[in-house]
Task: structure prediction
Amino acid sequence: MTARNIPLVGITVTAALLLLLLPSTCDAWGETGHLATSKAAQPALSPLAALGAARDLAMYASTFPHNSDFVSSAVWMDSIKSAEHLFNHLHYIDYTVVQPGYNESSPIPDLVGDPTNHAEWALYQAAYTLARGAKADDWSRSLAVRMVTHIVGDIHQPCHAASYVGAQFPVSGSGDHGGNSVQLSPSVHLGTGGHTANKLHSYFDGGAGRSGMGDVGYAYPAPAGTTGVDDAALAAFVTGITGTGGGGGGG
Result:
Protein backbone atom coordinates (compact mmCIF):
# COMPACT_ATOMS: atom_id res chain seq x y z
CA MET A 1 0.00 0.00 0.00
CA THR A 2 1.41 3.38 -0.96
CA ALA A 3 1.19 6.61 1.00
CA ARG A 4 -1.21 8.17 -1.48
CA ASN A 5 -3.80 5.48 -0.62
CA ILE A 6 -3.93 6.24 3.13
CA PRO A 7 -6.57 8.90 3.98
CA LEU A 8 -5.39 9.52 7.54
CA VAL A 9 -3.81 12.33 9.57
CA GLY A 10 -0.88 13.01 7.21
CA ILE A 11 -3.16 13.21 4.18
CA THR A 12 -5.54 15.49 6.10
CA VAL A 13 -2.72 17.95 6.77
CA THR A 14 -1.56 17.76 3.16
CA ALA A 15 -5.04 18.23 1.71
CA ALA A 16 -5.68 21.30 3.85
CA LEU A 17 -2.50 22.92 2.61
CA LEU A 18 -3.14 21.97 -1.01
CA LEU A 19 -6.63 23.43 -1.04
CA LEU A 20 -5.55 26.73 0.46
CA LEU A 21 -2.52 27.25 -1.73
CA LEU A 22 -4.56 27.45 -4.92
CA PRO A 23 -5.51 31.19 -5.10
CA SER A 24 -3.38 32.79 -7.83
CA THR A 25 -2.66 35.84 -5.67
CA CYS A 26 -0.73 33.74 -3.17
CA ASP A 27 2.53 33.85 -5.10
CA ALA A 28 5.19 33.69 -2.41
CA TRP A 29 7.61 30.96 -1.35
CA GLY A 30 10.35 32.67 0.66
CA GLU A 31 10.08 32.68 4.46
CA THR A 32 7.08 34.99 4.36
CA GLY A 33 5.37 32.90 1.71
CA HIS A 34 5.86 29.64 3.60
CA LEU A 35 4.59 31.20 6.80
CA ALA A 36 1.59 32.64 4.98
CA THR A 37 0.60 29.34 3.41
CA SER A 38 0.77 27.44 6.70
CA LYS A 39 -1.07 30.28 8.44
CA ALA A 40 -3.83 30.15 5.83
CA ALA A 41 -4.05 26.35 6.04
CA GLN A 42 -4.20 26.15 9.82
CA PRO A 43 -7.94 26.89 10.29
CA ALA A 44 -8.84 24.15 7.80
CA LEU A 45 -7.10 21.39 9.75
CA SER A 46 -9.43 18.89 11.32
CA PRO A 47 -9.27 18.84 15.15
CA LEU A 48 -7.48 15.49 14.96
CA ALA A 49 -4.89 16.75 12.47
CA ALA A 50 -4.30 19.96 14.45
CA LEU A 51 -3.84 18.03 17.69
CA GLY A 52 -1.52 15.52 16.06
CA ALA A 53 0.63 18.19 14.40
CA ALA A 54 0.92 20.19 17.64
CA ARG A 55 1.90 17.08 19.58
CA ASP A 56 4.48 15.93 17.04
CA LEU A 57 6.07 19.38 16.71
CA ALA A 58 6.24 19.90 20.49
CA MET A 59 8.25 16.72 20.99
CA TYR A 60 11.40 18.40 19.66
CA ALA A 61 10.65 21.98 20.65
CA SER A 62 13.90 22.14 22.64
CA THR A 63 15.89 21.07 19.56
CA PHE A 64 14.07 23.41 17.17
CA PRO A 65 12.77 26.19 19.45
CA HIS A 66 11.96 28.57 16.60
CA ASN A 67 10.10 26.08 14.40
CA SER A 68 7.86 24.15 16.76
CA ASP A 69 4.34 25.37 16.08
CA PHE A 70 2.37 24.71 12.91
CA VAL A 71 3.03 28.08 11.29
CA SER A 72 6.75 28.43 12.04
CA SER A 73 7.41 24.77 11.18
CA ALA A 74 7.00 25.69 7.52
CA VAL A 75 10.41 27.42 7.40
CA TRP A 76 12.41 24.69 9.12
CA MET A 77 13.52 22.97 5.91
CA ASP A 78 14.96 26.20 4.54
CA SER A 79 16.72 26.89 7.84
CA ILE A 80 18.32 23.44 7.94
CA LYS A 81 19.24 23.70 4.26
CA SER A 82 21.08 26.97 4.87
CA ALA A 83 22.78 25.83 8.06
CA GLU A 84 23.60 22.19 7.31
CA HIS A 85 22.96 21.72 3.56
CA LEU A 86 20.49 18.91 4.31
CA PHE A 87 17.55 17.76 2.17
CA ASN A 88 18.61 20.06 -0.66
CA HIS A 89 16.85 18.04 -3.38
CA LEU A 90 13.60 17.59 -1.45
CA HIS A 91 12.40 21.16 -2.14
CA TYR A 92 11.61 20.59 -5.81
CA ILE A 93 10.84 18.15 -8.61
CA ASP A 94 11.87 18.95 -12.18
CA TYR A 95 9.03 17.84 -14.43
CA THR A 96 9.96 18.65 -18.02
CA VAL A 97 8.10 21.49 -19.76
CA VAL A 98 8.94 21.51 -23.47
CA GLN A 99 8.87 24.48 -25.84
CA PRO A 100 6.28 23.81 -28.56
CA GLY A 101 7.99 22.51 -31.68
CA TYR A 102 11.28 21.81 -29.92
CA ASN A 103 12.85 18.62 -31.27
CA GLU A 104 16.43 18.26 -30.05
CA SER A 105 15.79 14.68 -29.05
CA SER A 106 12.82 12.39 -29.22
CA PRO A 107 11.44 11.60 -26.75
CA ILE A 108 12.51 14.40 -24.40
CA PRO A 109 14.20 12.70 -21.44
CA ASP A 110 12.75 13.01 -17.96
CA LEU A 111 14.60 15.57 -15.82
CA VAL A 112 13.16 14.37 -12.51
CA GLY A 113 16.28 12.34 -11.78
CA ASP A 114 16.56 10.07 -8.73
CA PRO A 115 13.02 8.82 -8.03
CA THR A 116 13.74 8.73 -4.28
CA ASN A 117 15.29 12.19 -3.93
CA HIS A 118 12.75 14.88 -4.82
CA ALA A 119 9.82 16.79 -3.34
CA GLU A 120 7.01 14.48 -4.42
CA TRP A 121 8.75 11.42 -3.02
CA ALA A 122 9.48 13.21 0.26
CA LEU A 123 5.88 14.37 0.58
CA TYR A 124 4.53 10.85 0.13
CA GLN A 125 7.02 9.51 2.66
CA ALA A 126 6.06 12.18 5.19
CA ALA A 127 2.33 11.56 4.67
CA TYR A 128 2.85 7.83 5.12
CA THR A 129 4.79 8.41 8.34
CA LEU A 130 2.03 10.61 9.76
CA ALA A 131 -0.65 8.13 8.69
CA ARG A 132 1.07 5.44 10.77
CA GLY A 133 0.48 7.49 13.91
CA ALA A 134 1.95 5.90 17.04
CA LYS A 135 3.49 3.12 14.94
CA ALA A 136 6.05 5.68 13.70
CA ASP A 137 8.68 6.95 16.14
CA ASP A 138 8.47 10.44 17.64
CA TRP A 139 11.40 11.84 15.65
CA SER A 140 10.02 10.63 12.32
CA ARG A 141 6.60 12.18 12.96
CA SER A 142 8.11 15.48 14.11
CA LEU A 143 10.28 15.62 11.00
CA ALA A 144 7.36 14.63 8.77
CA VAL A 145 5.14 17.52 9.91
CA ARG A 146 7.92 20.03 9.21
CA MET A 147 8.43 18.51 5.76
CA VAL A 148 4.72 18.54 4.86
CA THR A 149 4.19 22.19 5.84
CA HIS A 150 7.22 23.24 3.81
CA ILE A 151 7.17 21.00 0.74
CA VAL A 152 3.50 21.52 -0.08
CA GLY A 153 4.32 25.22 -0.26
CA ASP A 154 7.41 24.62 -2.38
CA ILE A 155 5.71 22.54 -5.06
CA HIS A 156 3.19 25.31 -5.71
CA GLN A 157 6.05 27.54 -6.81
CA PRO A 158 6.25 26.87 -10.57
CA CYS A 159 10.05 26.87 -10.60
CA HIS A 160 10.09 24.20 -7.86
CA ALA A 161 7.96 21.88 -10.01
CA ALA A 162 9.37 22.12 -13.53
CA SER A 163 12.34 22.76 -15.76
CA TYR A 164 11.81 24.34 -19.17
CA VAL A 165 13.46 22.77 -22.20
CA GLY A 166 13.73 24.61 -25.50
CA ALA A 167 16.07 26.21 -28.02
CA GLN A 168 17.60 28.55 -25.43
CA PHE A 169 17.73 25.89 -22.71
CA PRO A 170 18.47 22.57 -24.43
CA VAL A 171 17.84 19.22 -22.84
CA SER A 172 21.57 18.51 -23.10
CA GLY A 173 22.03 21.19 -20.45
CA SER A 174 19.11 19.94 -18.33
CA GLY A 175 16.85 22.80 -19.36
CA ASP A 176 16.59 26.01 -17.35
CA HIS A 177 17.20 24.32 -13.96
CA GLY A 178 13.90 25.40 -12.51
CA GLY A 179 14.25 29.00 -13.67
CA ASN A 180 17.71 29.40 -12.14
CA SER A 181 19.24 29.81 -15.60
CA VAL A 182 16.79 32.53 -16.60
CA GLN A 183 18.47 35.87 -15.89
CA LEU A 184 16.39 38.98 -15.23
CA SER A 185 17.79 42.26 -16.47
CA PRO A 186 17.43 44.59 -14.80
CA SER A 187 17.01 42.90 -11.44
CA VAL A 188 13.54 43.16 -9.88
CA HIS A 189 12.99 44.86 -6.52
CA LEU A 190 10.95 42.53 -4.32
CA GLY A 191 9.38 44.99 -1.90
CA THR A 192 9.83 46.27 1.62
CA GLY A 193 12.42 43.68 2.61
CA GLY A 194 15.03 45.37 0.41
CA HIS A 195 15.73 42.21 -1.62
CA THR A 196 16.09 41.97 -5.37
CA ALA A 197 15.83 39.06 -7.77
CA ASN A 198 18.13 38.54 -10.75
CA LYS A 199 16.77 35.11 -11.74
CA LEU A 200 13.27 33.90 -12.56
CA HIS A 201 13.43 31.38 -9.72
CA SER A 202 14.25 33.95 -7.04
CA TYR A 203 11.60 36.28 -8.50
CA PHE A 204 8.94 33.65 -7.81
CA ASP A 205 10.45 32.81 -4.41
CA GLY A 206 10.17 36.47 -3.42
CA GLY A 207 6.51 36.88 -4.37
CA ALA A 208 5.48 38.09 -0.89
CA GLY A 209 7.85 41.02 -1.19
CA ARG A 210 6.12 42.07 -4.42
CA SER A 211 2.89 42.08 -2.45
CA GLY A 212 4.35 44.68 -0.09
CA MET A 213 4.96 42.58 2.99
CA GLY A 214 8.68 42.04 2.64
CA ASP A 215 10.19 40.62 5.83
CA VAL A 216 7.59 42.14 8.17
CA GLY A 217 6.23 38.77 9.23
CA TYR A 218 9.47 37.01 10.17
CA ALA A 219 12.60 37.76 12.15
CA TYR A 220 15.64 35.51 11.66
CA PRO A 221 17.44 34.63 13.79
CA ALA A 222 14.40 34.70 16.06
CA PRO A 223 14.61 36.51 19.41
CA ALA A 224 15.09 34.16 22.36
CA GLY A 225 11.89 32.47 23.45
CA THR A 226 10.00 33.25 20.23
CA THR A 227 9.45 31.78 16.79
CA GLY A 228 10.31 35.12 15.17
CA VAL A 229 6.85 35.30 13.59
CA ASP A 230 4.94 38.58 13.78
CA ASP A 231 1.54 36.97 14.03
CA ALA A 232 -0.47 40.16 13.56
CA ALA A 233 1.43 41.17 10.41
CA LEU A 234 1.20 37.65 9.04
CA ALA A 235 -2.54 37.44 9.71
CA ALA A 236 -3.07 40.76 7.93
CA PHE A 237 -1.11 39.50 4.92
CA VAL A 238 -3.09 36.25 4.80
CA THR A 239 -6.34 38.20 5.04
CA GLY A 240 -5.28 40.18 1.99
CA ILE A 241 -4.72 37.10 -0.15
CA THR A 242 -7.39 34.71 1.09
CA GLY A 243 -10.04 36.81 2.83
CA THR A 244 -9.41 35.02 6.12
CA GLY A 245 -6.81 35.80 8.78
CA GLY A 246 -5.87 32.21 9.52
CA GLY A 247 -5.57 30.64 12.91
CA GLY A 248 -3.23 31.33 15.79
CA GLY A 249 0.29 30.12 16.08
CA GLY A 250 3.08 32.66 15.96
CA GLY A 251 4.79 34.64 18.65
The longest strand covers residues 183-189. The first helix runs from residue 9 to 20.
